[in-house]
Amino acid sequence: MYVRELKNRSGSISIQIISKARGRYKVVKSLGSAITRQKIERLRRLAQQEIERLSEPLTLFSSPDDVLVEKVFESLDNSSIQTVGPELVFGKIFDYIGFNQVGEELFRHLVVSRLAFPLSKLKTIEYLYRYQGVTLDIDAVYRFLDKLNTKLKEQVEQIAFTHTKKVLEGNISVVFYDMTTLYFEASDEDDLRKTGFSKDGKHQNPQIFIGLLVGLGGYAIGYDIFEGNSYEGHTLIPFLEKMKQRFKLGKLVVIADSGLLSNDNIAALEANGYEYILGARLKNESGKIKTEILQHTFSDGDTTSITKDEKTRLIVNYSMARATKDEYNRKRGLTRLEKQVKAGKLTKSNINNRGYNKYLKLSGEVSIEIDYEKYNQDKVWDGLKGYVTNTRLTDAAVMENYKNLWHIEKAFRMSKTDLRIRPIYHRLRNRIEAHLCIAFTAYCVYKELERILYHEKSTLSLKKAAELTHNMYQVKYTLPDSRYTKTRLLNMDDQQKELFDIVSKNF
Q: What residues contact residue 95 under an 8 Å CB cut-off, 6+ apart?
């Protein structure tokens, strides 16, 4: 007897035990099928153990315990073993935050599978059937998505906000706002999916904007969706007002990056009673302020404050490490431009203020060359970072608060990479909104896992924790005499046990 790997039309690999007698091959036993090499190798090991068992049949001298164990294992099949890690870890956190109040089992399945195996909805159906024993129809999933956003979005946001308020001990006076683009593989536009400036570099793909509001530490408050050709500066005030009224937030300090820095936004923030800390674009300041900045002699860690008007001030900080990084990035951008100029790949359309294209200029009528004088002039700005604020916080407190903006940037990175929120394949608006509602919920669960791993001083990363859930198994068996069916968790390795114990202890 030997082990055979058989490739299926679906792309999976079946593991079989084959015997040969009188020139004919016979399938003795099928151990199941898998896609990943890790699971294929596991099935191969099981098959090899089965061959050894069949090659050494029980004798009359076998102990009663051996016979009983063999009978138990003979009663098991593939459906007896289930992957329960995602439910043991993510499902418990889902309940702890309060998302089980939604009362939709399908919603739970879609969120947990998004965390464990961030796949398409069709692949999610396959995952649930293969690993959870849950049978779903794809049409039922789409019907659920059609009703999800209108019925559940507000409830999901309320649960997320309540949890964030609990984690932050009621202190939601500082909020962070940012936007990102999410692109679609489909090429056609509609009233929501439109081409526009893409932060993903997918300028030819229809896209949408998603705005996210979080508290300190990156804990979610709420989100909203905007048309793909929106100007992000116009989204800030309406979104803040909606969140403030809905969650009865008091006086807020709003922190956002320089993309939202405009005279209109600043005026609107002040008119609505908001304090703010915004990233500044130093090179866009007035000539007077730029002169004042450059007249200052900076050393590493130096900070200066410049009064812009009676309400606002500009804080400028210098970092030697930032200067080194800025210089490296400028040189890298220049090298790329030089290669493109030499290759003749640049046209008049490339002469704009996007990135390092600002160093290009026209020479004569048709020649494009690099403006090295402009490149060298930019060196004086290396290492400088600016912040515009109308708060009465100290300069150090302003900069420290702004540093927390990386939490929201991390939230987008987690959603785009770990949760694979993009690209989006849905076409209908309600399904797009439902997809984002599921991703928002998944982010809240993911963030809570991150918090508790940090609290317990675990060395496990979020990505590693998600991977560990893939191989946490449960076996279902029937006792031979009583015919009573029981389930039992299979033994875990050290890292799986660490994760399981942390989750069991805290949730």
A: 507
